[in-house]
Design brief:
This protein has 793 residues and is of the alpha/beta class. The protein contains 28 helices and 20 strands. Strands 8-9-7-10-13-4-14 form a seven-stranded parallel sheet, with helices on both faces.
Length: 793
């Protein structure tokens, strides 16, 4: 057997305007008969707040105006309140606004002044000393980040935000308004228009007047007489246009913001985070449209102009309505402002609901209305000609009131510790959901005194968990200062050095730093692309044989770097694709591709086809999947009290090396680098795997001569010694040894490490005698392990 289990809370069905239909629940309840279950424990709120909400809805007859939806008393999961309020305060507060005379308070007055009164109440609460118990059991003073203000509309949220900012209280607005309706969108349009036409004086002046550019009216006026300053600004807009042409919109947009210093200037403003969030959001959206639709400068500015026009007319922009909603700026330490609809499913420690009295009955304006017919099992119908006092409109009004009742329930159940609402005799709110819930029906014609009597009965019923306070219509909040800032002292002093000693030798070192003797060699931390290479002294003897392809290719660090960059990204097996990479890298380095492109390509193809050992293994046979290019490593050095020295390295070479590597030990002992403790960092040009064994490769662009015979083993050994490459590749092998040991199951050095190939690129070719340009070695296991122990200290 199978069963369908439906889980939900019909009391929170508040999305009728999006097509949600609470009567679907009514039908489901009827079909389910008695198979209904209710959760009876509130795991969110404090016991006092749960009692208060229970009292409010239990005092109201038929609180949701539907027989199928009833209010059930719940119990709190928490054993005690997690907020310590000052004496006289309560978990639920009704802030009552008295009339100013005989008439009900006008809605226009409320829209204008209520945000100020709410901000004053929040500032006052933050100064009461209320403490909230954290999950870790600590008591911490209530902060702005603990508070949320729930409103019916985005306009109301923005109004409260402005008043809170005026008091210095940080805020974060969550809105479903489009970012294209923001002031920043208008400013971006002006800036991009000026970039599009940098010769338009009017357009440039308009762009400079934006807050993003930051010039004052006096600054702009001064440009009329300062021709040099004007030319400077005009040149800036032309440069941004050129950057847009060369690199695309988003790069030009970011460059513009950076060069204008927009971030630092805007973040210094009270609403700076909001402004920067909007700017970056706009940049992202425009970039997406430019890429998706392949829009040039003129088309993108036109798209922005049309999109803003549609949004300001009330329509959603095309294609991306949700993506354009205002994003929430940083809210960790800020009062959250959002609509009740957005708050559904969320929870906040403290909640203020100042506009629950809003919402009006539907009006008949010669338009059809939809309604659920109670005489036909609540079937959804449309009345194309509703009568002003007919049953159709009455039913529609009833459905709207029921929806507002559920909206009220959602708002009052978002808080964990404290909830506050604003109420009073408000014009056009006599029959609202709050009037029905607190007073049982319309409050039309009732006095403030009679309304307070109803509220006092509710206070008594709630057992002290609800309190009623009276708002001062003329109240102005005091600026709020964060406790941390209030305790700050204006006396500045330097920090006191309290360490017993300074570790003189702890740093990040590298191979280049070791052989150059530099104490701190920042350049050495970069990739080793022959930056320090120089001409290697020639071995005495007669040069003979075929001239190498790259005999006259430029020498030096830039040439070496170019070769490395080509080999790093090239597919070794794709000789045809190599030509395009060469052209790109030569151009980036400032070389003439027409002069050197074919030469370098032929030289590198020959190098890739040259055999590396007697088995005929060559790089052209190494697939991309079996390569690790520019493998970065960081080895810990002497984690105890010891230090790495040239003498300790030389001892290991003398004890375990053989042949040319052992002869190098004497030179190694003479190195004069500062003792090292900390880390050794480097990059290995290439590590590849072939038939289950791993090989270390380093590319060398040294110019040893013009003929193939200049790259024989004897000359290569001389270069290896002269530049201390013996030390370099042994350090590389130690790094790879450790790397493989951590990644290869059943790793064994003798089984898995194939050796080292130092490839002197200029001397390599399949047409040359075997071994030309290739220096190969395979350090013994004993030497690698000994060097590893030296590094460990």
């Amino acid at each position: 057997r199978s069963a369908l289990l439906l889980v939900g809370d019909p009391k929170q069905s508040i999305y009728a305007f999006r097509g949600a239909d609470v009567f679907s629940y009514v039908s489901a309840v009827r079909a389910a008969s008695n198979a209904r279950f209710t959760l009876e424990t509130n795991r969110r709120s404090d016991p006092s707040l749960v009692r208060a909400v229970n009292a409010i809805f239990e005092a109201c007859k038929d609180p949701f105006r539907l027989d199928a939806i009833q209010f059930h008393r719940v119990t709190a999961y928490a054993k005690a309140d997690r907020i310590a309020l000052p004496r006289g305060d309560a978990a639920f507060e009704i802030a009552f606004l008295p009339r100013d005379g005989e008439e009900a308070t006008n809605k226009g007055w409320l829209d204008k002044h209520l945000p100020r009164l709410v901000a004053a109440e929040i500032a006052k609460f933050l100064r009461t000393g209320a403490e909230i118990t954290t999950k870790a059991g600590r008591k911490e003073a209530a902060r702005p980040g603990d508070i949320a203000v729930l409103t019916r509309t985005n306009k109301q949220a923005a109004a409260v935000q402005a008043e809170l900012r005026a008091l210095g209280i940080p805020t974060a607005l969550a809105s479903d308004e489009s970012v294209f309706a923001s002031a920043e969108a208008a400013e971006v349009e002006l800036l991009l228009s000026a970039i599009l036409e940098p010769t338009s004086a009017r357009g440039v002046r308009s762009a400079l007047a934006t807050t993003v550019a930051g010039l004052s009216a006096n600054d702009i006026a001064a440009l009329e007489t300062d021709e040099k300053a004007w030319d400077t600004w005009s040149a800036r807009f032309r440069a941004w246009q050129a950057h847009w042409d060369d690199h695309g919109f988003v790069q030009a947009f970011r460059r513009m913001l950076s060069e204008l210093g927009a971030e630092a200037r805007l973040l210094a403003l009270v609403d700076g985070e909001r402004r920067m969030t909007n700017l970056l959001h706009l940049g992202e959206l425009l970039h997406g449209v430019a890429v998706r639709d392949r829009l040039g400068k003129t088309a993108l500015v036109r798209w922005l102009r049309l999109t803003r026009a549609r949004v300001l007319d009330g329509d959603n922009p095309p294609d991306v309505p949700e993506a354009t909603e205002l994003r929430l700026e940083s809210d960790a330490h800020a009062v959250k402002l959002l609509t009740i609809h957005k708050s559904k499913g969320l929870e906040f420690p403290v909640v203020y609901c100042p506009f629950l009295w809003g919402g009006r009955d539907p009006e008949v304006k010669d338009a059809a209305i939809d309604f659920h017919d109670p005489t036909d099992d609540h079937a959804l119908k449309i009345d194309v000609q509703p009568a002003k006092d007919g049953p159709t409109l009455a039913q529609k009004k009833e459905e709207v009131l029921a929806e507002n009742q559920r909206l009220l329930y959602v708002a009052l159940t978002r808080a964990k510790h404290r909830c506050a609402i604003v109420w009073g005799a408000f014009n056009q709110a006599e029959d609202c959901a709050l009037a029905y819930t607190l007073h049982g029906g319309s409050i039309k014609g009732r006095s403030d005194a009679s309304l307070k009597d109803d509220l006092q009965k509710l206070v008594t019923k709630a057992g002290g968990t609800i309190r009623v306070v009276e708002l001062d219509r003329d109240a102005v909040g005091e600026p709020w200062i964060a406790p941390d800032r209030a305790r700050e002292t204006k006396v500045l002093a330097a920090r006191v050095f309290a360490r017993e000693r300074v570790d003189r030798w702890f740093r990040i070192g590298s191979f280049t730093g070791l052989v150059s003797g530099a104490a701190v060699d920042l350049e050495a931390l970069a990739k080793d692309h022959d930056e320090v290479e120089e001409e290697t002294p020639a071995v005495v003897g007669e040069a003979s044989g075929e001239r190498v392809v790259l005999h006259d290719f430029p020498r030096g660090a830039k040439a070496g770097t170019t070769m490395h960059e080509v080999l790093e990204i090239a597919d070794f097996a794709d000789a045809e694709g190599l030509r395009g990479i060469v052209a790109s890298k030569l151009g980036a380095a400032g070389y003439d591709d027409a002069a050197w492109g074919e030469t370098l390509t032929r030289g590198l193809v020959g190098m890739l086809e040259a055999p590396l050992d007697a088995s005929g293994m060559k790089l052209a046979s190494v697939p991309r999947a079996k390569r690790a290019d520019e493998l970065e490593f960081v080895l810990p050095v002497c984690r105890g009290d010891g230090v790495l020295s040239a003498g300790k390295l030389a001892d290991a070479f003398e004890a375990h090396a053989a042949g040319e590597a052992r002869a190098y030990a004497a030179r190694l002992r003479s190195l004069r680098f500062l003792p090292l403790r900390g880390f050794l960092k480097g990059f290995i040009d290439l590590v590849f795997e072939h038939e289950g064994r791993f090989y270390v490769v380093d590319y060398k662009s040294n110019h040893l001569g013009e003929h193939a015979t200049d790259y024989r083993r004897a000359k290569l050994a001389e270069a290896m010694t002269h530049h201390d490459y013996f030390l370099q590749y042994h350090l590389y092998v130690v790094a790879v040894h450790r790397w493989l040991a951590s990644r290869v199951r059943g790793y064994d050095y003798d089984t898995h490490v194939g050796g080292v190939h130092y490839l002197f690129v200029r001397g390599m070719s399949a047409a040359h005698p075997a071994g030309c340009g290739v220096f190969s070695d395979r350090p013994s296991r004993a030497l690698v392990e000994a060097l590893s122990e030296v590094l460990d200290g």
